[in-house]
Write a sequence for this structure.
């Protein structure tokens, strides 16, 4: 049994590739299996269906999640639950990051009232670049996650559903995020949600950055002292909140000669000494030219851009990032306005 | 560690040699002069090269039916390989092994293998020997997504973990076990996911990117040499030809291979990266192209001219007495 087509819709975007990179080999990063993502998605269905979300749009993929969801939909939902109608987006499947971009664009085009993202910082970064003002509910399933939180999917589904169905005003519970934008030769190229780091390594290679050698400059939109990954370097020196107006930028150096050494958890189970030469405030709108002549730019911990001597790169902090739902605020609003409890008339 | 110029040249030469060897076999097999089957490795060169660049004389590899690339990567003589595939008496195995049983123990290449999933137990044995003898050597088993479903693969993963062997399992997932899509036939999401069940790291890398493979391979080899145990690495890649030469490939999409060649070619990627980074010039790579072409031309010419094994050799080299 499904809800009608005119009911509000939601996008669910789960990255089938998140959680299998080299950090399982060089650190002790955990594996997040697709089977568990499938379970989380069905828990989202339960919450969304209960709240009257009619349609869920999902990314088509060639790597398992879509098939598992189709299989789950073949059997009736448990305990008389009503699940939304699930529509797999009509899109080419390349099994690459571009699939996430296309899916996010299509969800926005379908007018979804929110996009629930299951993935790591990298997946959220991709969705953020296409979501516009559609609020994102961020759920962590990746490796070095700072942007999304580990939350129970049922609750995240309730929060996303309450907002998508208009029961909770989005303006009261969504927050705008900062982003780090990188310009290559004067053209806006890409963005990071948390950290942008340059390295003198020459290749994208296996993507993750986990060695101290070669780290050159680090730009942070926020830096929490209890974070994992590159942002922990700034967070352990000068914490910056998500809500703070500015960010940080750090020039990194060889720990043998640097004035400050930070022992930072660069990956799960991997504590590395990082030399810090200078720490400065990063002001919104200020363009900082990168000092390395060639190397790679890592966005949210993953090497994404190779550049050479002929390229000019600059980084800016902007306040035009994605809207994300504050799940705690949504649920508190729901409690205060008695949205999920009622007086027993019997 | 960054690759030196000599190492970059070596990597390109290795990949190019594998490619040209396979492209030429594709042409020559169609003439009917080559006995038996050949299974071509074209398209997958970055995997064999990314791993074999880390190996030395202490190390051993076990291959599968698609073993030419691994053999070249481990240093087998190209002329002798070609002669072997032509069934000539001067072939690497006296002309009696052919493509699917090509081996050179002196180079640590323990053999291609006609048994799907047959290589991993051999790699475990070699790794156990290296560990017991304290050579510091490692063993690598290269196998496909089809073999990843075989019991021998599971048993080997288990044994390597239980005995903490310096063994690396490389799943070269080209998307098809013969004609069956791995998306259908592999029950887990990625073959690398199986590693966690055997208490070892498992990672997925882009098998078209030499630098991605090289980096992951380096970490796995280092881990094995340091006595930290086995690793499972899944290289996602594509083969440019059928399962075997003559395969009509009706299971593949229209223009699938044509598009792959145009958009995902590990040699093109390598060339673009090293030239744009000003580490190697187009001219330097072109010189290697010419030298490799001459090498392969010569190997075919010599193989065709070489005599077949003598009838008196029929029963030699077949059994060994321990």
């Amino acid at each position: 049994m499904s809800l009608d087509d005119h009911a509000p819709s939601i996008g669910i975007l789960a990255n089938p590739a998140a959680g299998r990179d080299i950090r399982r080999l060089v650190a002790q990063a955990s594996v997040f299996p697709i089977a568990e993502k499938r379970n989380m998605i069905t828990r989202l269905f339960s919450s969304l269906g209960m709240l009257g979300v009619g349609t869920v749009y999902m990314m088509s993929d060639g790597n398992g999640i879509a098939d598992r969801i189709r299989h789950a939909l073949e059997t009736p939902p448990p305990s008389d639950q009503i699940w939304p109608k699930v529509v797999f987006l009509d899109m080419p499947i390349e099994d690459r990051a571009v699939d996430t971009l296309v899916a996010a664009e299509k969800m926005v085009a379908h007018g979804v009232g929110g996009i629930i993202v299951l993935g790591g910082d990298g997946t959220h970064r991709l969705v953020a670049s296409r979501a516009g003002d559609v609020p994102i509910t961020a759920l962590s399933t990746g490796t070095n996650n700072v942007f999304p939180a580990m939350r129970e999917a049922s609750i995240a589904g309730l929060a996303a559903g309450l907002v998508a169905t208009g029961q909770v005003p989005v303006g009261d519970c969504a927050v705008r995020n900062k982003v780090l934008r990188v310009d290559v030769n004067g053209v806006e190229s890409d963005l990071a949600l948390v950290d942008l780091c340059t390295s003198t390594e020459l290749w994208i290679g296996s993507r993750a950055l986990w060695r101290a050698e070669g780290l050159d400059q680090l730009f942070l939109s926020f830096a929490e002292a209890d974070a994992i990954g590159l942002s922990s370097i700034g967070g352990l020196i000068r914490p910056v909140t998500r809500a703070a107006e500015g960010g940080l930028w750090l020039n990194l150096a060889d720990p043998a000669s640097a004035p400050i050494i930070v022992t930072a958890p660069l990956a799960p189970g991997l504590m590395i000494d990082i030399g810090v030469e200078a720490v400065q405030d990063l002001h919104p709108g200020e363009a900082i030219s990168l000092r390395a002549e060639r190397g790679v730019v890592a966005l949210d911990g993953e090497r994404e851009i190779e550049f050479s001597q002929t390229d000019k790169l600059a980084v800016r902090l902007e306040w035009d990032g994605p809207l994300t739902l504050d799940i705690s605020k949504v649920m508190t609003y729901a409690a205060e306005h008695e949205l999920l409890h009622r007086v027993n008339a019997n | 560690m960054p690759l030196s110029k000599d190492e970059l040249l070596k990597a390109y030469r290795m990949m190019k040699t594998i490619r040209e060897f396979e492209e030429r076999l594709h042409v020559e097999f169609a003439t009917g002069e080559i006995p038996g089957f050949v299974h071509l490795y074209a398209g997958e060169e970055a995997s064999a090269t990314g791993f074999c660049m880390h190996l030395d004389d202490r190390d051993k590899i076990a291959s599968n039916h698609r073993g030419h690339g691994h053999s070249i990567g481990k240093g087998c003589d190209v002329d002798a390989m070609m002669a072997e595939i032509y069934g000539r008496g001067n072939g690497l195995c006296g002309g009696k092994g052919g493509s699917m049983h090509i081996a050179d123990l002196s180079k640590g290449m323990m053999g291609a293998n006609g048994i799907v999933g047959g290589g991993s137990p051999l790699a475990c044995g070699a790794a156990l020997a290296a560990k017991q003898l304290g050579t510091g050597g490692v063993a690598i088993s290269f196998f496909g997504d089809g073999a990843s479903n075989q019991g021998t693969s599971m048993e080997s993963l288990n044994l390597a973990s239980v005995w903490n062997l310096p063994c690396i399992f490389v799943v070269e997932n080209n998307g098809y076990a013969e004609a069956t899509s791995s998306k259908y036939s592999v029950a887990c999401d990625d073959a690398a996911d199986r590693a966690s069940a055997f208490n070892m790291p498992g990672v997925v890398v882009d098998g078209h990117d030499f630098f991605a493979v090289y980096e992951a391979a380096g970490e796995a080899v280092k881990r094995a040499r340091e006595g930290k145990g086995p690793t499972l690495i899944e290289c996602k890649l594509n083969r440019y030809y059928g399962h075997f030469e003559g395969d009509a490939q009706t299971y593949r999409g229209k223009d699938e291979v044509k598009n792959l060649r145009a958009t995902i070619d590990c040699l093109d990627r390598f060339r673009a990266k090293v030239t744009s980074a000003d580490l190697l010039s187009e001219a330097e790579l072109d010189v290697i192209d010419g030298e490799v072409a001459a090498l392969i031309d010569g190997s075919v010419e010599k193989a065709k001219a070489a005599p077949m094994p003598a009838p008196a050799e029929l029963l030699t080299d077949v059994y060994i007495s321990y």
